[in-house]
Amino acid sequence: MGELYLVGMGPGDLPGLTLAAKEALEGAEVVIGYSTYIKLLEEMGLLPGKEVVRKGMTEELDRAEEALEQALSGKRVALVSGGDPGIYGMAAPVLELMEERGFRRVQGGGHAV
Fold it and tell me: Which tens digit of pLDDT belongs to each residue from 7-48?
């Protein structure tokens, strides 16, 4: 099984990325996000050699599903959101999708099949 990281871009510039966000992006094989966020990450030089999936403004559920499918296929995936992914971003759609698919919460806050 792969890994899925929910990555918040903060204010959208390199100094605004947390160290954890930058490390998740650097370690990802696949980066999925809204096309504007992907463009910003490309301009920051954080996406060379990675598979990149761009989605439109209203395609949050499609992004969540693509990210989960890629992770389940064994890839390390970074799903990018603006700001904090738990407040403004992709955490809610991903967690809802995981619950629909039968994942269960495990000790420490993660999920397992």
Answer: 998 888 888 899 999 999 999 999 999 999 999 999 999 999
Interatomic CA distance for residues 53 and 66, integer angstroms: 9
Tell me how far apart the alpha carbons of residues 55 and 34 are, in angstroms, rounded to a whole number.
Answer: 5
Quick one: three-class SS letters along 6-72? EEECECCCHHHCCHHHHHHHHHCCEEEEEHHHHHHHHHCCCCCCCEEEEECCCCHHHHHHHHHHHHH
Strands 30-34 and 51-55: parallel
User: Is residue 21 within 8 Å of 9, Cβ to Cβ?
Assistant: yes
Q: Which residue shows structure tokens 């989605």?
A: 55
Give this prediction's pTM.
0.86
Half-sphere exposure of 21 (CA within 13 A, CB side): 22
Q: If we measure between CA atoms, which residue out of 30, 87, 73, 75 comes closest to residue 55?
A: 30
Q: Is the CB of residue 34 less than 8 Å from the CB of residue 56? A: yes
